[in-house]
Amino acid sequence: MNLDRSVKQARRQVLLIGVLGLVLIVAGAVLLVLSISGPVLDFSLVRILRIVTPSLIIIATGLLIGSLAGVLYPLTAIRQARMKEETRRQEQFRNEMETLRQMLEAIRQGVSISDAAKQIAYRHKDREALRHAIREDIDKNDYDAAYWLVTEMERRFGNRQEAVQFRDMIETARKTFINREIQEALDHLEGLIERFNWADSQREMEQLMRLFPDHPEVLKLPERIQAAREAHKRDILKQWKDAVSKDDVDRSVDLLKQLDQYLSPGEAEGYKEIARDVFKKKLQQLGVQFALHVSDHNWAEALRIGRQIVDEFPNTRIAAEVRERLPILQEKAGQASVAI
């Protein structure tokens, strides 16, 4: 506003200068007319110039001052137009700043809302977010985290009925998941039992009992494994007795080796004589085979059976005799293989 006032004052001053120039021009013209109109006694050039020169100087000064005013006035008009444009821009800028200030004030007021007011304003969104998070934890089998979120939802929103429903949902999902995990473990354990892998069955059972000590199916596992082991022992014992009765020496020996891990010392004592007779027959059988292969110069097979006698019956008399002949048998078997 001060600048606008200065421009207007300058325009008035320029107008005054222009008026002054015009006055000088008129005064000079009048003076010139009066000078020329008087009686002229001497018409020499010098005399004429001396008469009109002051008038011309006044007129020239008026023209110069008028010309200066004519040049300055448009400049002041231009300056005034620029000042109006600048004023308009400043006003526009002030309006924009005021709008921005109002927006910032609204934001400040929004930020300064109390926590209680925020909870009221965003209550629905927060509740939906918690519900989604609870279901997500259930899907990921993270039941402890889901329980915590339900407790938090009940504390913040006070919806006890919904919290009870969610807890029932979590417990149902937990039981379903545990039952599925236990069933898969039981199926795996059953496979171990069917393969008579008692060591791995025992380890699997112990792990399940640590993880699920109160589950009814897990509590039955020791009895289940023991019953399967006893049934398998009875089956092997029956097969062994059948093989002995049929005088199937090889099968009797193989079954007796399997049966050895199932019999207690007391039970083994009851079958000691039968087992001794089976091993005696096996040793006799091997001795006959050894002698036949040596007689037929079948050195490789004789060497194999001889080593079997030494390994399986190391403390017998025949094992001692075979042990002495093993180096010769090994040499002859090597020579036979080279010859072939």
Care to give the gist of this entry?
With 340 residues, this protein is mainly α.
Task: Tell me the layout of helices and strands.
Blueprint: H1 2-37, H2 45-111, H3 115-121, H4 123-139, H5 143-157, H6 160-194, H7 198-211, H8 216-219, H9 221-245, H10 249-259, H11 265-270, H12 272-295, H13 299-312, H14 317-339
Describe the structure in your own words.
The chain is mainly alpha-helical. The protein has 4 domains: 2-111; 125-195; 231-270, no CATH class; 273-340, Methane Monooxygenase Hydroxylase, Chain G, domain 1, CATH 1.20.58. Helix content is 88%, strand content 0%. The chain contains 14 helices and no strands. It has helices at residues 2-37, 45-111, 115-121, 123-139, 143-157, 160-194, 198-211, 216-219, 221-245, 249-259, 265-270, 272-295, 299-312, 317-339. The chain starts with a helix and ends with a helix. The mean pLDDT is 80.
